[in-house]
């Protein structure tokens, strides 16, 4: 992953002021089952999935040696062995990352970034941990999620998991058809639209469903699903993304 993209990604995630909430009643679906239901309803085939674990660590500016020590601890937890550690440093950041195969199968990209803050703007120093895993299989994605919950959350209890699927519908969908398809797909999991945006070739909806155990909230507005459709004129297909609680990639 490009160094600039890593830095921007970590900073963007860090700006999300959200609170993970647990429901008292029993859930009906797992998050991955909900995403799979959305894909089945839309008639889309899954091409790839991505899981991210993000955690804010201690609020201080770590040295490169300290970052490397944490990075190697996390790599050891995941069973990553022998991967080269990449380092980068500037006036406003220190970042290290490693990429390698995990003990439970898929490859993982582990990133640690520390920022010094800014006293003039009353911004505290902060350090972030980001773990990214990808796979083409929905069942493998579910396994990745389970393993990260078992392995990494005890290490960084304030961390949060998010994940999404990407797939294709082998036909061009008009804007009206994409809107209708998105609404049907969300209805299949009892999703209620919280917010949406669109243009002539794209529809994106953020929604809440009571069928999932967990949700997030901004200004008391709960959400736990994100769905997007865009027509790809180069390949003449319609691309579908569906994520919990948000799609953390570009679309």
Could you characterize the architecture of this molecule?
- This protein is α+β, with helices and mostly antiparallel strands.
- It has 5 helices and 13 strands.
- Strand 3 and strand 4 form a beta hairpin.
- The two termini are 17 Å apart.
- The N terminus is likely disordered.
What's a concise summary of this model?
Helices cover about 25% and strands about 40% of the residues. It has helices at about 5-15, 30-40, 65-80, 140-150, 175-185, and strands at about 20, 45-55, 85-90, 95-100, 105-115, 125-135, 160-170, 190-200, 200-210, 215-220, 220-225, 225-230, 235-245.
Task: Throw out a few tags for this protein.
251 residues, alpha+beta, ten-stranded antiparallel sheet, three-stranded antiparallel sheet, 5 helices, 26% helix, globular
**Spatial sequence of strands, sheet with the most strands:** 3-4-5-6-2-7-13-12-9-8
Distance between the termini: 17 Å
Q: What oligomerization state is this entry in?
A: single chain
Tally of strands? 13
How would you characterize the largest beta sheet?
Answer: 10 strands, antiparallel
Unreliable residue runs: 3-19
Secondary-structure element string = HEHEHEEEEHEHEEEEEE
Instruction: Tell me the number of helical segments per DSSP (H or I, 4 or more residues long).
Output: 5
| Computed Rg | 19 Å
The helix/strand class is alpha+beta
Shape: globular
Quick check: average pLDDT? Answer: 90
Strand percentage lies at 35-45%
**Into which percent range does the helicity of residues fall?**
25-40%
